[in-house]
Amino acid sequence: MFEIEIFTKEGFKDSRGEHVLSEISGLEIKEITKVDYAPVYIIDADINKTEAKTIASELLIDKITEKFEISSNSGSRKSKNSVIEVLYKKGVTDTVSESVIKAIKDLGITKEVKVKAGHKYYLHGNISKTALDKIAIKLLANTLVQEYKIK
Amino acid sequence: MKATTNCKTIEILNLSDKQLTNLSARNVLSLSLVEMKAVQDYFRKLNRNPTDVEIETIAQTWSEHCKHKTLTGIIKYTEKKGTKKTKRTYNNLLKETVFKATVELNKKWCLSVFKDNAGIIEFDAKNGVAFKVETHNHPSALEPYGGSATGIGGVIRDILGVGLGAKPLANTDVFCFGNPETKDSQVPEGMHHPKRIAKGVVSGVRDYGNRMGIPTVNGAVYFDEGYMANPLVYCGTMGIIPKSKINKKVNSGDLILVVGGRTGRDGIHGATFSSMHLGKESDVSAVQIGNPIVEKKVLDTMLKARDLNLYRAVTDCGAGGLSSAIGELGEKTGALVYLDAVPLKYDGLVPWEIWISEAQERMVFAVPPKNKKRIVELFNKGNVEAVFVGEFTKDKKLTLKYDGDIVASMDMFFLHEGIPKPIRPAVYKIKEENVQKPIKMNSASLLKALKDALADLNVCSKEWIIRQYDHEVQGQTIVKPLQGNSIEVSGPGDAAVIFPYTVVKGTKKGIVLSNGLNPQYGKINTYKMAANAIEESLRNAVAVGANIEKMSVLDNFCWGNPNKPEILGSLVRAANACYDMSKAFGIPFISGKDSLHNEYSIDGEKYSIPPALLISAMGVIENAVNTVTMPLKNEGNKIFVLGITRNELGCSVLAKIKNVKGGVVPEVYPKESKEIMKRIYKAINSKLVESCHDCSEGGLAVAISEMAFAGDKGVKIDIDVIKTKGELTVAEILFSESNGRFVVEVNPENKFKFKDIFKDCIFAEIGCVREDKNVAFESVKNKVEVKEKSENLLNAWRNTITW
Fold this sequence. Notes:
heterodimer; A: Mth169, Chain: A; 6-stranded antiparallel sheet; 6 strands; B: alpha+beta; Phosphoribosyl-aminoimidazole Synthetase, Chain A, domain 2; 7-stranded mixed sheet; 27 helices; about 35% helix
């Protein structure tokens, strides 16, 4: 199992992060000073790290504006900021994952692959668990079809 | 008939009335007691209990969504005006109003009306043009992004599924949302904030429409508190179809081919669910997620298969899934389906789930056996999954098999005609309307009112939304949604014009799309609301150059709970307006859709939405070059107002801003309006019109300001020469929302020719375009001068929605 996170490179605009930040201030939560957004892909397959790297660099990132990080089990990346991770619930059609699975096959990796696509938001600033829940429920996740984790 | 581990028998033969009602509620069937009893009777005759597959099939087929049972049912209507009461019984409201007008008008150029997935009118000698507008309200309330995306995906499939398939050329979208400034604490628990819904809905339409490569060219957004928990999402698609491909025919022996997406648990009970009101406990499986890439591939390959004549009929899987699609195609023949042959997204679906799932991006074809191999090869070449799941029979029965066992066997006649007609009472009390006390305002407060009107949520720029959509793709949009000299300076176009030169080689013709909607008027009088919507849609189209003699309209009713007599009564009134206006303007309805039960509950209290009738208009014009836009063009040109201004400020923008009580909701005068509309077409085609704008919300003041700032020009208007009915104050003249009016810019050289065309119509020359970039309204008589830089008015209009 590999978790691939995609970050915006220094010097480029993380517009989704900025957008979320402005929406958080709309919720009258003032403590957050910055939001980093990272799409995340959890790849469940019998592949090695080199293959995971190929998938990340050839498929998932825009090499000019983005970089990736791979961890071999979910959630190992240390962060001093609060993190909200949003994923689709089981059974909900996840078209991004379907496309990634197909593209991995097209890369020549023929092993059986399962993919979950999600979103991670790194929130800078000191903030209570209640406020994090509020941000997650009101802005980031539609709990009808998605679930979120606060890390 | 066999019950297997995957298919249960449902005890119904010996149930009491109460137990039948409970069964309907428990299994989310949304069938009334009368309907449940009809089901019980049918199976008593067969002397057996139904299977779950059969019960679910009946529930889908008889759902409000598929059968429109309220509008086609019996309605006992009472109308009260003062102390006078009139009564009338409708055996089928749709047939006796909307549809009746079309039949009576009997236009030869209407090629397919009210029978297929979309309405089709003639484009030229070889082609027709199809138009359909759908609603996707409930799913969008729960999951705005997925809900609206599948809304647009669904209506595109309606166009693919009309006749043997039309090629989509343009999308439209119209939304009603709650007030985006609502305080967070006022949003009921379990519901999304109106702004979140608005953003989600817009991005859903954007992502699906843009990825399909279909331009989104026309739309509207309406904000009202009444739509907070129940937004309205209307999605439309227009497409072009060869006349030879308009009819479908299913023969016994044809094979059933399912094409496109796989079947999963998505959207189970969508059709029956849309007949229920929204509450906190609404269910996850009602939500569908769209995949535009799959649909795009289906689109591209199926049009190839169409042109190779590889199939005899096609329809899309919408509400009710395979159950509705195969049920409709096989209505006259019968069908045998092997449910275990349907390709699934994942294991674990039981037969009834496969049969009624509303998984997206699926189409069903009737294929003659000789083309079996070729059609599958063609789809596979386009990376589209295509699987045969059964055949059309000649026994006029629906038979479903799973793992070799028969799990359903019913007569098509019972399924499609066995539904008992409900009888519903309806009442409507016509409210008395009186002219408000004269509204007197000085120059400063008039200017403030003008800026407030421009900034009003229902008038202001929707640029934030429009610019997210691709309205250029396919390269055929020649009149665009935002019009002006640059990206920074633009105004709201009245209608879109598509010039389909890539599909119809060598054509000069164009297709005009517009809409009309104003739920505000419906709060006083739904008859007037409907009449206004119809006229507004026509006026918008005529303003860019449409020919009023060759236009058609679609109706989309979104109403509250029809079990409440007052609500159903207001619907009857609106339907009557549709008949009257359609006849008076000579404009046929060609297709429509209703979404009833738009009701939601907060803390146990039930609320119905403000009724909304969207009218979408489509017209064909001879020469796409002869169209005009709304920005003012040149200094020195003359400004005319066509039509008469009446004291009609009921539910107007000014009434809202100034909190004016009373007032008369604008009346429609079809004879007057149509005469003007005819002549505008003549004037535009004689190249006498430089710019033209429809006058609606916010009246003349708003319309003229928009023309000025869109063109980055100044304008000077003499209020005293504007033609009015009776004595009106300056504020009333500037802000009245009377119908039948256009503001037109004319080159002084053409002035006399222009006036000649409009002789015996009511019109006036009221001012001219000026270099100074000031918008000025003057009345010497009343010592009023309202003057402001057009740039400042532009900013007032632009800065409301900047999310």
